[in-house]
């Protein structure tokens, strides 16, 4: 049967659930404590200086501001008023914006996978796909966290940023498919991490508006907090003379006019500098400040403050492989809402809908034709192996997209994320420039178990696509063959694969690996920081963010990153009060 005929037959009974870009963008809240770095004095003093206003940094600053003078330094702008950040349908726009003022800073790992890091108040929670889900009680225990305080901290976060999603039919079909292939039981809507299939939370509300870690600043005490935007911290300052351990006492930061500022800790042994610059930013800044392996520091002409070879080690990025499933029926735009937590070590999730604009660019200058979350324009180019994902290859994919018909864009992606992962790599600096990305190697699939999990994940996706529950949103094999034949240069991967593709499942995993942006490590607990997140071998310095993780928490990390910011804020306050109380007792 002619492709377009059966398409128009089946389209009739369907309602289009697609969200349309409403043009809505959140109004800037009148946070009295939000300022530009250029307006800051050349020298200032605080009890806590937090570097990085990201997913962990914002909840941490809001909490510490209750009783102390806190400075939060963020290199990016505020997220408010930027529709690319605020609207769910604009998800790909930020990632494809590679300008120096973009909230997303693109980086390419040495593995060749194109990736992205945040440069905006609210951090990765302003760029991400919104899925909100907690770590398992097991993960919480193994991290050494107090389970009750962790739960209270999750709840504190959830009151502001987490929502129950409305479930368009495509996500419901994915859920049904997961259950039919045995990813059971169905756990309903829950933030909890349990085997089976569930509907998770989302930081997008029912209008598709994003709520971010920056919104957690609503909890802040305005008297206690100063947030500086466009404040690029280039160095942490240490006192070394006459001490057995270097003690952090200040930072150097630069404003958007290129002016240098210094912020120091107030006198008092309890005051601290806390690094929350993320998995790339935190190890980078430690090294720039003289904490790293002696060899690397000397090669960069950086004075050694502490020889710490573990800084920048243990970098991991969970491999993600995704399959585009063309749909005969229209689909709503959704990011991630359903997850299958399998017993074989991978998580299966999906995102649906895409954007087809004939002009190649819509009225608002948005990307035009794209595959939503997995558009080649955002760097998610999986049809060629990682090291071949050059700007020319991206241009060829975009060109190929321009020759497709509108119906080719109709569908969704089912992805699998490898749990853990077990494979690790490392981060190195190429130079002393804080604005440049460090060089990072993730060593995807170096450990055979990661590869095995990927292969099983792809097999499960294949079964889901063929399951009765998913049938409304996929073509039969015969029809799919025709569809693929129409477009041999299809710019995204689909199943079934072409008969000419003789790659082993393992090679397929390696060749089509992408990122789900859950990279972590570089300042791991037990290696660079202790169980209290204090930098081992130093005083008055901690790291609190995703760089401290050994494994990615839950199915998706942001809930736990925000939780950790709140959790450590409470812990730091409690410890401080306990010390003061002990001192008071001693004196009386
Ligand atoms: C595209 C994308 C999609 C994702 N999807 C999901 C999802 O659906 N669900 C989920 O749970 N997770 C998702 N994640 C992952 C999650 O968002 C991150 O793991 C999390 O945001 C990391 O938080 P962090 O606090 O460690 O770092 P960040 O949030 O990146 O915070 C670091 C902050 O420090 C600032 N900074 C860095 N260096 C300096 C410096 N020298 N001076 C001043 N400031 C500095 C940065 O600008 C940034 O704001 C996604 C991530 C991305 C990028
Ligand atoms: C939004 O994204 C588009 C596409 O990447 C970009 O051209 C535009 O400048 C961005 N707008 C804002 C306000 O950042
Ligand atoms: C934390 O909450 C989870 C459910 O979200 C529960 O399973 C766990 O027992 C709780 N932990 C504690 C210590 O209360
Ligand atoms: C380090 O300093 C030496 C001597 O000043 C110089 O030759 C070298 O280029 C510098 N290296 C770097 C990486 O800046
Ligand atoms: C497919 O769509 C039709 C029409 O909306 C609906 O009646 C049917 O239940 C759907 N099938 C499945 C398996 O969800
Ligand atoms: C694919 O296209 C070729 C040439 O146009 C045609 O001969 C072949 O029958 C097509 N295959 C399918 C499965 O439609």
Automatic annotation (TrEMBL):
Keywords: Disulfide bond, FAD, Flavoprotein, Signal
The organism's place on the tree of life at top rank: Eukaryota
SUPFAM superfamilies for this protein: FAD-linked reductases, C-terminal domain, FAD/NAD(P)-binding domain
GO MF assignments: flavin adenine dinucleotide binding; oxidoreductase activity, acting on CH-OH group of donors
Signal sequence, renumbered to the chain: 1-25
Domain Glucose-methanol-choline oxidoreductase N-terminal stretches: 278-292
Sequence positions that bind FAD: 120, 233, 517-518, 546, 557-558
Record protein name field: Glucose-methanol-choline oxidoreductase N-terminal domain-containing protein
Cofactor(s) in the UniProt record: FAD
Paired cysteines (S-S): 454-509
UniProt similarity note: Belongs to the GMC oxidoreductase family.
Alphabetized PANTHER family for the sequence: OS04G0573100 PROTEIN, OSJNBA0019K04.7 PROTEIN
PROSITE patterns linked to this entry: GMC_OXRED_2
């Amino acid at each position: 049967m002619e492709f377009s005929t059966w398409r128009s037959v089946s389209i009739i009974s369907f309602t289009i659930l697609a969200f349309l870009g409403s043009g809505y963008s959140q109004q800037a809240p009148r946070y009295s404590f939000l300022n530009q770095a250029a307006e800051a004095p050349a020298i200032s003093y605080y009890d806590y200086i937090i570097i990085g206003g990201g997913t962990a940094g914002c909840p941490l600053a809001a909490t510490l501001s209750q009783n102390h003078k806190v400075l939060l330094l963020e290199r990016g702008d505020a997220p408010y008023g930027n529709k690319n950040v605020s609207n769910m349908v604009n998800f790909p726009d930020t990632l494809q914006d590679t300008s120096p003022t973009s909230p997303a800073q693109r980086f390419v790992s040495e593995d060749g996978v194109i990736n992205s890091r945040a440069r905006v108040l609210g951090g990765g929670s302003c760029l991400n796909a919104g899925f909100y889900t907690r770590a398992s009680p097991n993960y919480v225990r193994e991290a050494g966290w107090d389970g009750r305080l962790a739960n209270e901290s999750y709840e504190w976060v959830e009151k502001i940023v987490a929502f129950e999603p409305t479930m368009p039919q495509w996500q419901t079909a994915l859920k049904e498919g997961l259950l039919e292939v045995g990813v059971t039981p169905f756990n309903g809507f829950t933030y909890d991490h349990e085997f089976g299939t569930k509907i998770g939370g989302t930081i997008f509300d029912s209008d598709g508006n994003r709520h971010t870690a920056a919104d957690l600043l609503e909890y802040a005490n305005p008297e206690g907090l100063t947030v500086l935007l466009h404040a690029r911290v280039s160095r942490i300052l240490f006192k070394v003379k006459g001490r057995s351990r270097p003690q952090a006492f200040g930072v150097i930061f630069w404003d958007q006019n290129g002016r240098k500022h210094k912020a120091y800790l107030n006198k008092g042994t309890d005051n601290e500098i806390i690094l929350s610059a993320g998995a790339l930013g935190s190890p980078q800044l430690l090294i720039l400040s003289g904490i790293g392996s002696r060899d690397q520091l000397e090669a960069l002409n950086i004075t050694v403050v502490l020889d710490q070879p573990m800084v920048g080690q243990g970098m991991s990025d969970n491999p993600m492989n995704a399959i585009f499933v063309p749909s005969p029926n229209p689909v709503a735009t959704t990011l991630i809402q359903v997850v299958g937590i399998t017993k074989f070590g991978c998580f299966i999730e999906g995102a649906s809908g895409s954007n087809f604009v004939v002009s190649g660019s819509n009225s608002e200058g948005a990307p035009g034709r794209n595959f939503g979350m997995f558009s080649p324009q955002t760097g998610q180019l999986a049809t060629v192996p990682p090291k071949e994902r050059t700007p020319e290859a991206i241009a060829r994919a975009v060109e190929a997209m321009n020759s497709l018909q509108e119906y080719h864009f109709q569908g969704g992606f089912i992805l699998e994320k490898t749990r853990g992962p077990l494979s690790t790599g490392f981060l190195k600096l190429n130079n002393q420039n804080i604005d440049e990305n460090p060089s990072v190697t993730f060593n995807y699939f170096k450990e055979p178990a990661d590869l095995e999990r990927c292969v099983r994940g792809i097999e499960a996706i294949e079964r889901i696509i063929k399951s009765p529950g998913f049938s409304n949103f996929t073509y039969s094999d015969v029809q799919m063959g025709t569809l693929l034949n129409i477009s041999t240069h299809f710019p995204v991967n689909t199943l079934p694969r072409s008969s000419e593709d003789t790659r082993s499942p393992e090679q397929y995993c390696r060749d089509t690996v992408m990122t789900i942006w859950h990279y972590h490590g570089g300042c791991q607990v037990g290696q660079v920081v202790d169980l209290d997140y204090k930098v081992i071998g130093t005083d008055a310095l901690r790291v609190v963010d995703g760089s401290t993780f050994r494994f990615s928490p839950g199915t998706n990390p942001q809930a736990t990153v925000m939780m950790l910011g709140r959790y450590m804020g409470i812990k730091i306050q409690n410890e401080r009060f306990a010390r003061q109380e002990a001192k008071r007792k001693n004196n009386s």
